[in-house]
Each structure stands twice: as C-alpha cells, then as structure tokens.
Amino acid sequence: MKMELNLAFIGFGTVGKGLAELLIKKEKELKQKYNFEPKVVAISDKIKGSIWKSDGIDLKELLDTEARTGKVDFYQAPSKGLDPLDTITKTNADVIIEVSYTNLQTGEPALTHVKTALTNGKQVVTTNKGPAALSLRGLEELAEKEGVNFFYEGTVLSGTPVFSLIRDGLRGAKVKVIEGILNGTTNYILTQMEEGKSYEDALKDAQDEGYAEADPTGDVEGWDATGKIVILANKLFGGEMSVANVERKGITSITPGNINLAKNKGKRIKLIARASVEGGKIRAKVTPEELPLTNPLANINGATNALTLKTDVLGEVTMVGPGAGKIETGYALLNDLLELNKRLEKS
Predict the structure, then answer these.
(1) Gyration radius of the chain over CA positions
(2) What are phi and psi for residue 272, nearest 5 degrees?
(3) Is the pLDDT of residue 1 over 80?
(4) d(CA 233, CA 133)
(5) Of 112, 154, 164, which Cα lies nearest the Cα of 135?
(6) 113: Cα separation from own chain's centroid
(7) Which candidate in 30, 188, 203, 310 could, as Cys together with 177 as Cys, close a disulfide (CB 3.0–4.6 Å)?
(8) Beta strands across the sheet bearing 316-322
(9) Which residues contact 50 (CB under 8 A, 6 or more apart)?
(10) How far is the C-alpha of 46 from the C-alpha of 315, rounded, in Å?
(11) What is the rounded (10 degree) CA torsion for 214, 217, 223, 227?
(12) What is the pLDDT of residues 125-184, one digit of tens each?
C-alpha cells in the first residue's frame, strides 16, 4: 500500500538541502524500488524564512530560489511566516525533519521541536545530536507512547550507517565495547600534523577545506565526539549517560613532538571515543590515544570517520565512511525516511 508522507523541514541549511537534492535526483528510483513518494509541504528556517504549501513544494524551484536569494520565503507559497512550532503543529506535515543547529548544552531549540512533534503524533527524523545526546531514552519512550517513530541515524557518522547496521546486521550479537574516530575535523588535523605541519597550520587547512568552523572549539576540544559517544553508549547499552559524565580531552595540546614520538614507537595518535560497561556502569571517554598500526583505527586518515564494535560472537566489526558532508548527511535522513516508509507500509 502506498503511503502518503508529507514532510516538513525545521531548518534548511546544508543538510536539509542535501536531502532535498537527493529527493530530486532519486525521485524515480525511490518510487519504483521503494514505493516512496514523499511530498515536502513546509519549511521553517530561522534565517531563510518559512513557507507552507499543503499540496506540495516544487523542490527544484525551491532550491533555485534559495540559491538566488538566500531565502526560502521568496518561493511562491500561500502561507508564510510560521515559526517552527506552528510549522510542526498547524501544517499538514506528518513527518518532521529536524535539522536546525546543534546545541549540546541544552539541546534547544531542537529538543523542544522534537518533543512537540512527537507529542502531536508526528514522525521525527533528525541528524541533530543535541536531542539524542541529552534525552535519547525519554524521546524514544515518548515516541512509543504516542505510536510514532524517532529516527536519528545521521547523528553519529553522518551517512555511514551505524544504527541500521546494528539493528539489521548484528541481530543476536552483543556489543561489549564501542570505540571510534567520531570527528573528521580532528582526524584531518592529526593527519596533517603527521605530514609535518604544526597544529595551527593544520587547523587553518581544515578551516580552508570547510572541515572546521571559524570557532573550532566543538571539534578540537572533543565536544562533538563526546555527544556522539553518549548517543551510542545510551542506545547500545541502554543507559542514561549525559555529556557531563564523559571524560573528555581534545587535541589542542598535541604537538609535532608528540606525533613524532608516537611514530618512532610504531604508533599513531588519534582522538578516540570509547564506551563500555564496567561493573554494571557505563563508562565513556574521549581522548587522544597512541594506537599501534595494527589497530584498524590507526589507519583511518583525513576527514574520514570509523567505528569499531567489539562483540561477543563476531569479535571486532569496524565501519569506515564519511562523517560529514551535505549529500552524505542528507543520505542519513533519506535512509531513515525509507525505513519509516517500510514500517508504515507494514503497520
């Protein structure tokens, strides 16, 4: 049975546009292979404005308009000016795509967006780490209570599938330890430093390449990786760990001397996020580590991310893939939407 899914974007920056481009590019394939014909009916962005067109927005025209003007509300639509909460509660959208900015301290405004959507019986798909890092169990319980779904595949490794692999590919296996390179910016910087650059020059290169923000604190001080390991630990180990519980150290104190000393020992420095259960308690940390070159994570260079799951029946399973990017992260949203579509068809 064909499902009618009306989508609303809360936020329409890089990731939102990435999904929109994929919906255009793969329209025929999604219809023929997955029986998936979504309709975007609303967009609300703090800077670019908001629109609502109940019978569907022409995504090609919308993207052209946004590229020319930097706004979405220059697109011809009968309703404009709704704030995010009104877009969630008053439009005919039944799937909310939450891709506003990330806040790991309070989770806001995304946390309120997600809670409001779930409470109003709307499905939620997000790449925003804030809500998942701060209130994963509560949001999943709320979704279950309201009979809807809360998907967040793209919160950890962008488009590289983590939760879907665990859900569909590791049935019957128990994950005992999680460890990985969860931040592409710091991995890029450390790779550049191993090639002889200073931390300052490597950071500037990362900024020039678009991997690091003008204020790189969230990456280089380990906050981004911390939010991700919290999401992973709470999901895989069933806990309620908070960002404050994680031992955290970034890479700002790493020097070329540290890099060379590790190299002379046949090792390589990586910013590693790790979580395990010890004595019935979840423990997690993010810290630079010297890894032997025999460790798969030691050979992950550039802006690439990787995650190793130590299991009881398969030993170590390592996933490697992009941890950022417009299309890559947009794909995470698409992956979740296809899973949602499949579940709704079966219900």
Answers:
(1) 21
(2) -110, 130
(3) no
(4) 10
(5) 112
(6) 16
(7) 310
(8) 247-248, 281-292, 267-278, 175-181, 304-311, 316-322
(9) 42, 43, 44, 72, 73, 80, 81, 82, 83, 84, 87
(10) 46
(11) -20
(12) 999 999 999 999 999 999 999 999 999 999 999 989 999 988 899 999 999 999 999 999
pLDDT digits (tens, 9 = 90+) for 52-76: 999 999 999 999 999 999 999 999 9
Question: What values do phi and psi take at 44, rounded to 5?
Answer: -135, 120
What is residue 168's DSSP assignment? H
Q: How far apart are CA 306 and CA 181, in angstroms?
A: 5
Residue 129 among the catalytic residues: no
Q: Which is catalytic among the residues 228, 235, 267, 285?
A: 228
Strand partners, 317: 309
Residue corresponding to tokens 């020097």: 255
Tokens of 275: 């979580």
**Angle at CA of residue 203, ends 201 and 209, nearest 5°:** 105
C-alpha 233/C-alpha 278 separation (Å) is: 12
- CA distance to 210, 295, 300, per residue, from 203 (Å): 11, 25, 18
What secondary structure does DSSP assign to 220-266, as a single string?
HTSHHHHHHHHHHHHHHH-----GGGSEE--STT--HHHHHHHHHTT
- The whole model's pTM is what? 0.94
Distances 264 to 181, 188, 251, 259, 268 between C-alpha atoms, Å:
22, 20, 20, 9, 9
Question: What is the tens place of the pLDDT at every residue in 247-274?
Answer: 999 999 999 999 999 999 999 999 999 9
Per-residue pLDDT tens over the stretch 14-36 = 999 999 999 999 999 999 999 99
**What is residue 51's three-state secondary structure?**
strand
Distance of CA 222 to the CA centre of its chain: 16
- φ, ψ at 240 (rounded to 5°): -135, 45
